[in-house]
Design a protein that fits this description.
The chain is α/β, with parallel strands linked by helices. It has a single domain, classed as TIM Barrel, CATH 3.20.20. It has nine helices and eight strands. The protein has an eight-stranded parallel sheet. Helix 5 links the parallel strand 4 and strand 5. The longest helix has 21 residues. The chain is globular. Bound molecules: pyridoxal-5'-phosphate. Pyridoxal-5'-phosphate binds next to strand 8 and helix 9.
């Protein structure tokens, strides 16, 4: 992927974000674009940054640990968007500004502790990843368990629980995904009332369905393929 195509892709995505925002009476500046750079090299992140992207999402702690060396010069916000294993929590607390895929109280406590030990970094933003569909995927919290987890996270001093995230099933027609996005928004609204937390963030929508997500209230969309091009096959999970 060349610099010009990342730039052209970004322009196209921004137009689509603006159109979806306009359709739903929202302002495009209230929607944050997260460039999902997993599997793409640091040079691609550099190019996207030059084009104007300021938020990036990576799904593996170890991959990011290697790649960040090539992006140290960038004043970007780095999001962990993939499932976080307990044994990588301390590292993640140091390497990311926000963990958008939190789904476990023990991991939350580890993040909190690690953040306290590093001192000067301030609070770590976190989102709870909610499982909006019954799928085989192991990540994400069952809807019924979200309030209790949210309450436990909200008392951890070094974490700032800012909202919810979801990865709905991949359905060919983006329109079919709408009920899942709507459900996440409704759950967020419920939690706000029940817990009295601001919980403003809704991270939902990927390359093929981010417009529907915006119409349903997404404040952050996570876009990989439409920005960086297709990914090489992922290496086996370990
Ligand atoms: C890979 C990934 C994305 C981006 O997916 P695209 O379809 O390439 O836009 C978004 N969110 C998460 C959690 C991902 O793992």
């Amino acid at each position: 992927m060349t610099e010009t195509s990342i730039r052209a892709n970004l322009t196209r995505i921004q137009e689509r974000i603006a159109a979806a925002a306009a359709r739903s009476g929202r302002r495009p500046e209230d929607i944050t674009l997260i460039g999902v750079s997993k599997t793409h090299p640091a040079i691609a992140i550099q190019e996207a940054y030059q084009a104007g992207v300021r938020h990036f999402g990576e799904n593996r702690v170890q991959e990011w640990e290697v790649k960040r060396v090539g992006t140290n010069n960038l004043a970007a916000t780095w999001h962990l968007i993939g499932h976080l294993q307990s044994n990588k929590a301390a590292k993640a607390a140091k390497l990311f500004h926000t963990v958008d895929s939190l789904d476990d109280v023990a991991v939350a406590q580890k993040l909190d502790r690690a953040r306290r030990e590093t001192g000067a970094q301030g609070k770590l933003r976190v989102l709870i990843e909610m499982r909006v569909a019954q799928e085989e995927t192991k990540s994400g919290v069952e809807i019924a368990a979200v309030p209790e987890l949210a309450e436990k996270i909200s008392v951890l001093p070094q974490l700032d629980l800012a909202g919810l995230m979801c990865i709905p099933p991949y359905l060919l027609e983006a329109e079919q995904v709408r009920p899942y996005f709507r459900r996440l928004r409704e759950l967020r609204d419920d939690l706000k009332t029940k817990l009295g937390l601001p919980m403003l963030v809704l991270s939902m929508g990927m390359s093929h369905d981010f417009e529907v997500a915006i119409e349903e209230g997404a404040t952050e969309v996570r876009v990989g393929t439409a920005l960086f091009g297709t990914r090489a096959a992922l290496p086996a999970k370990h």
